[in-house]
Backbone:
């Protein structure tokens, strides 16, 4: 059992009600990572819906989560032949932490047109890229023990010299060798430092995150491209693409986040 | 009263229950326009939540709507000092048509940082741009009677020569002179033809649409930039930006849609 599978396990305890545990193994500086929390929601919906793959998932982050027990309450909204839609609420201590709506499909059954309009990020092969986090360890950043990252170059903000250009690309994979799948992609789109670190911001908190899973990923490393284009009144979006080693865009997300007031 | 205000009116008939009417004045070829339907949902939430402006709105389109009576059922999820979040369900004939979750804020109160990283689309002034729809009229496309559009050049697909590049930019405004506001932006991000017409597709249907309203727009024309970057297995995203005449990005959206099988 991989850490990801173990820590996203949910157990049906009543109709539309799953017991879960928010693990201490997926924390970012502010607490449990939002992508990991969303994977818990999607895992519960996978148990309820008759189609296997999350296609579109939208999460609204209402309160910080804490490590410990949680419930996921689900609702099946509509079950169609091609798309099934449901809702999940992640609850701790009777308070709602995340509200998520998701449409599922069978990504292996898509028969429509594919048009190559853009390309995967240009990165050196993973074994020639830099492990910029080698030796880095923080007690409240256990996410770094779950994922491997490789970059073409060390980002400026790490040396106190933010580039002013809030974008980056890098390789990612699970450290324990678990293969990526659509559930993992839902977590991975939120598994990097915010691009706004390159404009000198220390952190930001997610208001809303929507991820589109576009294909089942091939095994191995995944290439990520992240960019923030608009910072307005403290709010910024962050666009995230994940490409597999076969050159397929497998997931795309956007989140709206608020710079932490200083 | 403008057509938009008139046709997005909702009436409280019970707790968390609003009566609405889906007007025949906002139809696209497939029926009532998705952006208009979402504005109905947001209008009901505006009545329930203590903050005035939609900030992030996610809609899942479950079934086609029809012209005629509808209900909007709402739920207040969380009311914070800075952000309030609610859910709306648009219902016709006891069937749910749209599920929407939205966070509201007061966009006039934002005090955080603004960083100019990108620019508004390059367009000729509206009075020098082309009204490519002049004289175009379809009984089932009443949306064209509600909005004015101006483009730099006539798009290739209109003459049966799709460019192969699914992007466009254009000016938009309400034909009756109503000033834009955050509610209008929610509708406008879905008020154009799909960019995939430029790759020879006749149409597509929206699965999910998320819009971020980033600022209250200045009065007057709005400049839109639309692009589809990935068409995979028949699904494509469409990114939509709206800029006001003062050069502020006022709304940004992404939708996931499915090309209509042929």
Residues:
């Amino acid at each position: 059992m991989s850490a990801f599978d173990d820590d996203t396990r949910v157990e049906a305890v009543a109709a539309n009600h799953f017991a879960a545990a928010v693990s201490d193994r997926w924390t970012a500086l502010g607490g449990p990572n939002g992508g990991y929390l969303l994977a818990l929601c999607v895992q519960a919906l996978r148990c309820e819906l008759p189609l296997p793959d999350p296609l579109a998932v939208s999460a609204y982050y209402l309160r910080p989560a804490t490590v410990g027990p949680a419930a996921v309450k689900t609702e099946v909204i509509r079950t169609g032949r091609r798309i099934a839609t449901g809702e999940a609420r992640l609850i701790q201590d009777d308070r709602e932490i995340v509200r998520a709506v998701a449409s599922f499909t069978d990504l292996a059954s898509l028969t429509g047109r594919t048009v190559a309009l853009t390309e995967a990020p240009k990165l050196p092969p993973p074994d020639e890229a830099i492990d910029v986090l080698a030796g880095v360890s923080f007690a409240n950043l256990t996410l770094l023990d779950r994922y491997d990252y490789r970059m073409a170059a060390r980002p400026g903000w790490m040396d106190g010299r933010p580039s002013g250009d809030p974008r980056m690309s890098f390789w990612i994979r699970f450290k324990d060798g678990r293969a990526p799948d659509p559930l993992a992609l839902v977590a991975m789109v939120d598994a990097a430092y915010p691009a706004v670190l390159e404009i000198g911001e220390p952190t930001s908190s997610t208001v809303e995150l929507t991820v589109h899973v576009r294909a089942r990923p091939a095994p191995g490393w995944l290439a990520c491209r992240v960019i923030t284009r608009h910072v307005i009144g403290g709010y910024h979006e962050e666009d995230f693409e994940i490409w597999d080693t076969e050159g397929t865009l497998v997931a795309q997300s956007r989140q709206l986040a608020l710079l932490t007031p200083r």
